[in-house]
Amino acid sequence: MSIRHGLLALLERGPMYGYQLRAAFEESTGATWPLNIGQVYTTLSRLERDGLVRPLPENDGGQRPYQLTDLGRAEITVWFVTPISRTDRPRDELAIKLALALTTPGVDVRAVVQTQRTSTIQTLQELTRLKNRSDKPSDLSWRLILDAMVFQAEAEVRWLDHCEASLLRHQPSALTPTPAPEGADTDDRTEANR
Amino acid sequence: MILELRGVHRTHGTGETAVHALRGVDIGVAPGELVAVMGPSGSGKSTLLNLAGGLDSPSQGAVLVEGEVLGDLNRKQLARMRRRHVGYVFQDLNLLASLTAVENAALPLELDGMAVRKARKLAEAALEEVGLADLARRFPDEMSGGQQQRVAIARALVGERRLVLADEPTGALDSTTGEAVLRLLRNRVDAGSAGVLVTHEARHAAWADRVVFLRDGVVVDTTSPVGEPEQLLEAKA
Ligand SMILES: Nc1ncnc2c1ncn2[C@@H]1O[C@H](COP(=O)(O)OP(=O)(O)OP(=O)(O)O)[C@@H](O)[C@H]1O
Ligand SMILES: [Mg+2]
């Protein structure tokens, strides 16, 4: 998600100035995504350039509120109805790491998997604690964001379990630390990787 | 420590066909602590729980509940310890088909000599906790799988169990009901019991204070104690 769309969505509620936008953003994302005020202003000026928002006259406190234009309103409507494509997200470093671990001689793949699993579950424990701290209805949106992080972490663990089980079935040798590749060992791996 | 496993081994069978279900496991669970056990199928999770609950005995090593070595207790003492102090949710539920939900939940208390009326009353309270107050008079075959599972949980939590052992208690439950069950378990532990939760689901294991990873009968890793959540957010920022 972009900050751009976040700010547009907030302006749908009515005109706001920079500090208000920042506070509202943090409130609705439960501070899982802190913004600095500089980011807010840079984004606002780009939105203005693109005709998605327009500045209103400064208020008495010298703050300038921004208002959504019709174009901006259309943009945010499209954003809400369009699914987020997985392929737009950054490449999965973990998947790449495991793929490389598999084909790099001397790497204990099982240990790589377990180290990641322990770390991810530890993150899950922390998220669960955080989530259970509050059950006020007003915190619902914040808990749902935490839930999203929880389910993503869980998916990662399930994928790790799957990797380990597949390795066991198809390439048991990869699960024991292999000595440095000299001679026959290298052939073995090429064989198993086909 | 409410539960302690010291150098526990468990071997099924002998000779060629021997299966080493556990090979030297050390685990301690203190009051107020919930430990989750994760591991692939066949890694020894249920074996570990059976030993902790005194349903099976180690081939080597010792299991202590509230400081008592289970192997030193006679049959009668062991049975009493199990009924009075240990709540157990089995992987295969083990509800008695001829008893209603409330009778099933009250059974451990009645076996322990509690007056029937009092036991039923506590059982009803436990059923209410798992959201089954209305189904108290139903028989297991008149309930869905998830409802039966919740009866089994009520049975494990009824009375003042100091040690609660749960083997995949959320198996047949949808995610919100599963979470409600974990909350019950967590509350019981926060009130001073010790808990061991076997689960395949990372999301559920995450309710524990510590997660222990078993593989081929050996503890291969353990999460360190949970830190302050704020650090997590700072790290993400
Ligand atoms: N009574 C028995 N006789 C022989 N082998 C047994 C017996 N009980 C368990 N085992 C073996 O001991 C090992 C551990 O079994 P256990 O039931 O503890 O696994 P688990 O981790 O609970 O698996 P799952 O996730 O499938 O429930 C397995 O290899 C199993 O086949
Ligand atoms: Mg099992």
TrEMBL record, chain A:
Pfam families reported in the protein's UniProt record: PadR (PF03551), Vir_act_alpha_C (PF10400)
Record-linked SUPFAM superfamilies: Winged helix' DNA-binding domain
Assigned keywords, A-Z: DNA-binding
Gene3D superfamilies, per database record: Winged helix-like DNA-binding domain superfamily/Winged helix DNA-binding domain
Protein name: DNA-binding transcriptional regulator, PadR family
GO molecular function, one term: DNA binding
Residue intervals of the Transcription regulator PadR C-terminal domain: 91-167
Record keyword DNA-binding present: yes
InterPro entries (alphabetical): Tscrpt_reg_PadR_C, Tscrpt_reg_PadR_N, WH-like_DNA-bd_sf, WH_DNA-bd_sf
Residue ranges of the region described as Disordered: 171-194
Domain Transcription regulator PadR N-terminal: 7-76
Automatic annotation (TrEMBL), chain B:
Native organism: Asanoa ishikariensis
This protein's UniProt keywords: ATP-binding, Nucleotide-binding, Transport
GO MF annotation: an example: ATP hydrolysis activity
Keyword hit for Repressor: no
TM regions (residue ranges): none
InterPro entries, per the entry: AAA+_ATPase, ABC_transporter-like_ATP-bd, ABC_transporter-like_CS, ABC_transpr_LolD-like, MacB-like_ATP-bd, P-loop_NTPase
Origin organism lineage: Bacteria, Bacillati, Actinomycetota, Actinomycetes, Micromonosporales
Stretches assigned to the ABC transporter domain: 3-235
PROSITE patterns, alphabetized: ABC_TRANSPORTER_1 (PS00211), ABC_TRANSPORTER_2 (PS50893)
Name the UniProt record assigns to this protein: Putative ABC transport system ATP-binding protein
Entry's Gene Ontology cellular component terms: membrane protein complex; plasma membrane
Domain of life: Bacteria
